[in-house]
Structures are given as structure tokens and as C-alpha cells.
Amino acid sequence: MAHQQEPAHAVEVHEDHDLTHVSPVDELDSDEPRTPAWMPLLGGALFLVGALTLMATRPAGKTTEELRTAAATAAQEAEAARAAELAAQQPAAPDPQAAAAAAAPAPGGPPKGG
Fold this sequence. Notes:
Elements: E1 9-13, E2 20-24, H1 38-57, H2 64-89, H3 96-103
Antiparallel strand pairs: 1-2
């Protein structure tokens, strides 16, 4: 007959059959190999090398002065756009000379007749 191994997890079934509790076993099976101590160290070292390589090969960021200049330029452009939008929304003020010319009588006086 074949030798049966114990399950890796202990299962506890309650009477109402809708709840199942699984608790992990803290011990390895007798045929399960142990992880060598250098394996987690290798993983950590590879992670650090990857992170440092990523940081070292990134392009240089902008300086604080470059960021301030860019922000000031963007603020000026936004203010100019806002002013242009407000000017486009308001009706144009009538030209005082054109208004005076329209109000003045036509040369030669009013038409005669009647």
C-alpha cells in the first residue's frame, strides 16, 4: 500500500458547514528541503542593485530655480489668457469720436421739405 502524507494545512469544519478555518503548519515536511541562508541575501542584493541602477541612470531633474522660472512663466501666461478672455467677453467700449460724429447733424442741416 502507498504511504499517505499528512496534509500541509490542518482543516477544521464546523457543524454549520459554512465556515472553514485553515491554520498553516509551522513545520516543514520531512522531504521538504530547507531554503539556503544565502537565497534571501541574494534576493535583497539584487533588489538593491536594481534600485541603485534605476536611480543612477535617471536623467537629472530640474533645479529649484528652473522650476520657479517655469512656474512664473506659466502663471504669467495664465493671467494673460484670463485677461484676454475677459476682454473678449465684454462688449467693446464705443469710440468717443465716432459717437460724437453720429450725434452731430449731417452737413447741410436737416432735409427741407415737408
